[in-house]
Batch of 4 targets.
Target 1
Amino acid sequence: MTEEIIIAGFGGQGVLSMGKILAYSGVMQNKEVSWMPSYGPEMRGGTANVTVIISDERISSPILNSFDTAIILNQQSLDKFEKAVKPGGLLIYDPNGITRLPLRKDINIYSIAAADEAGKLGFSKIFNMIVLGGFLKLKPLVAPEYIHKGLEKSLPARHHKLIPENEKAIEIGKTLIQGVQVLN
């Protein structure tokens, strides 16, 4: 099993930390892992993406041109990465800020209203964990206990008190993910 993932959105949406938590969780489960962030000099508010590869075998290169899964959190990222999803692959997007919906019919498309849910809960910082939960429902690459260990490893000790909230957000995300039918 090898899963090649791109997570992309604006800086400040938790794109890089979502990838880091997923990567650490894979490491804790004794998987081969690659985590390669990419962001512009503007950081918060600019575009950011991270490539995560989780595999049972050695990873030959962290540089990818196509992905099994794209997790998309803004329109610029959808425009850039929709075409990079392998046929039969998975595209997950949050509709908040998306003006043009995905158009491909040869991939599996899912929507998760994570920004709206995080807003309703009054805690915008769990947005990325809601998205991660939706992804893990569709592709349970790592077991929940390893997600917990990944959160412990990637969050500073002063934020460990927030781990239960993050785990709750992951569970919420599993209930929010919805398949999308492309019409045209």
Target 2
Amino acid sequence: MEPIEIEGTSKTPTVSLNHGTGFVEIKGRSIPENSVEFYKPLVDWLEDYKKSPAPKTTVNIQLEYFNTSSSKCILDVFKKLEDINKGDAEVVINWYYEEDDEDMLEAGEDYESIIRVPFKMIEVAE
């Protein structure tokens, strides 16, 4: 499987998906013109990855902001990770938020309540 590396812009997050290391990262701002189009390659990649995942997959989510349409797409990503976690592979999601950003913390907690994958809430000092 080829890794996916997407350089972030002012509207889209930096994305890194690497099968060899079992590392997934989404970082930055997520307000793309078309969220479904932006996130589709990630969801498709995870669907393939599910067939032979690394023994442990570490997912780092460090978003400054995301819009409503991105939130649905992020949930789709988490659902693929949940499928991977149901098998023999372990998935851990590290949800980063800035210390004064209650909204981002709550968003992570909301996802954690929906998805059956262990979340670690990690506060980042500014």
Target 3
Amino acid sequence: MPIHFANIEACVFDAYGTLFDVHSAVARYESRIGARADAVSNLWRLKQLQYTWLRSLMGKHVPFWQLTGDALDYALDAHNISDQSLRDDLMSAYMELDAYPEVRDTLSRLKDAGLKTAILSNGSPEMLESGAASAGIADLLDENLSVEEVGIYKPDPRVYQLAVDRLGVAKERISFQSSNAWDAVGAATFGFRVAWINRFGQGRERLTDDPDVELKTLDELLPIVGA
């Protein structure tokens, strides 16, 4: 039987990997990196995530922009790449990542259905604003919510509470979408209805609460929330 989320009033989205292709920055400069491009991109993303968790545990928060640069430096060093111009270009590209093909149409249809929409992300406010503008989706979002408002990264429940407070919608009436398995679990544990957008064929986490549904792309969400 098809899954349906009843009484949803808002759809909230993780940004990186869910709306924006985190590997599109390196892809733009693949010719300058060569055969190591995929490895650099994957390590950059891995260290970026690891640093969010480690800094949260250590109580040493820094904005996501700085953390992203630290993760890139680690990845470049690991592959013996010393090119300041390339580093600068990669960081600039991260401010204007490509959106996945179905993102704009999906958001448009959700808005047409009368649902509130928002980003809820680890990203710094300026990163989220730039990313939404460059992807052409800023007009389809009611809020760009950043962890900087609470000073700790996902999956701390204070981050998810931001969506409840800022949108004025009860958590059980919010559908949350993330491509990150750990983020989907965190949101489910908080009490959102959760669609895990498993773009990358990840394995299911062995943690607490499971997401309600696993999808491949965002447009599969539309019938689930009645849009």
Target 4
Amino acid sequence: MNKRSFISDDKKQGWTLLYDKYKTLFTKFAFKNFSVAHDTVEDIYQESFTVLYEKIRNGDFTASVSLQTYLFAIGKYKLLNYLRDNQRETTDLSEDILPPYSYDDETENWERKQEIVYQAVCRLQSPCNRILSLFYYDRKSMAEIARLFNYKNEQVAKNRKYLCISKLKESLIPQLKEENLI
């Protein structure tokens, strides 16, 4: 083994398996919750995995969560920063109304939560159901929504969206608790 090589072949193989295992899951998560290009998701995953690797290697990983949860949290914040830096808006409605997603949750529970959120949005009265649908599902900007509803400006649309999310939370939280999803 070369002096500069600090990882044995067995460890390299382990890291490669871990990298590949989480890459598919992370890619699905990113595409489901964020509007980003495939290349961007791959770059952000690479950066996130590198951060995780460096933290473990340097002995800085002391989290009380699983590696997957920690890796996805890193990736989520990198995705949000990317979207913010590129003037895009997140499309993750659940981030506004649900407790943080635990990556250890079963996929079925997460999908059920998403279904409940979607149904609750559909049950909202107008204009709330339309505003939230346009923003989260059709990915319209707040400026476009303000124009569609003839609001004075984008800030009025943002305020209205905030009030709509508050109404949505009121109806969602009891239902999610009833089904033991939160």
